[in-house]
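Protein folding task:
====================
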Amino acid sequence: MLNSPIRGAGVALVTPFDQNGNIDFPALVRVTEHTISKGIDFLVVLGTTAETPTLDSGEKQEIIKVILDTNQGRKPVVLGIGGNDTRAVVRLISEQSFEGIDFLLNVAPYYNKPNQTGLYRHFEAIAECSPVPVILYNVPGRTGSNISADTTLRLAGAYKNIVATKEASGNFDQIMVILRDRPKGFAVLSGDDALTLPTLALGAEGVISVVANACPDRMSQMVKLMDERNISGAQKLHYEMLELIHLIFAEGSPAGVKSALKHMGICGDEVRLPLTPVSDALSTRIRDYVSTL
C-alpha cells in the first residue's frame, strides 16, 4: 500500500431517526461514539448511508455539528457534498464551513448521466473550489454513470488535491487499472463491504464501510491485518462479517444496518420514505446474527 493522506477503515455513518421521523441526536452520538471507541480510522458524514437526500439543509448542519462535537478531533472526518448540478454543488461547498473537516467526498452526478468529458469537468470544478482534499465517489449502481479508469487517472494526475477514489463499481478490471497507473499518493478505497478484502489484496488503502456501523472493530482490524500482510487473519475476519454484510444489504441500505444497530441497542431502525424498514423475517435473521458479535 502507498503512503496516502487517507487510509484504513472509514464508516459511512447512519442518521438515526425517532418514531416521528425526526433526527435522534442522542442516538447519533451513540453511533458515532460506538464506531470511534471500537477503533474505526475515519468518519464519513452525510454519505449515502446517512440518507442524505432526505435531509434538509438545516438538518445536515445539525448532524455535522453533533458528529464533530462527539469526535473532538479524535478521527479524521470526511464530509459528503454532492449533486447533479455542478454549479449548485460548487455553491454548497463555498457556503460550507470546513472547520473540523479533513476531506470532501464528492459523488458522481446522478440521473442526468454525463459522459466522461462532463464527469471530468464536474470534478475539475469541485477540485478548484474545495478548501480540503477531494475523494471521488464512483457508484454506478446508484448514479447511472461510471467514472472510467482513464477519467479517474486523468483527474488524479491533474489535481493534487484529488487524493483518493471510493470505488463502488465492483469492476475489478477498472480498479486494477487505477491501482496500477495511479500517481504516487493517490488512494483507492473500497466502496463495497463484501469486496474489501480482495480490493485490499490488489493494493487498495482501505474502505468506506456500511457494516462498520455495527462492527467497526472487525472491519478496521481486517484492514490493518491486510496492511501487515497477515492474510489468514484478515480472511478470518472477512468471513466472520460476510454473512452480516449479505443480510444488511438483502433489502437495501441503510435499512439493514439500522436493523442491526437496533438489535445491538444503539439506535432505532426507522428510515425515511421512500426507504422502508426491513421485513420482520430479515430483522429476525439480523438479530440472530448480531447476537453472536
Summary: The chain is about 45% helix and 15% strand. Residues 8-226 form a domain with the TIM Barrel fold (CATH 3.20.20.70).
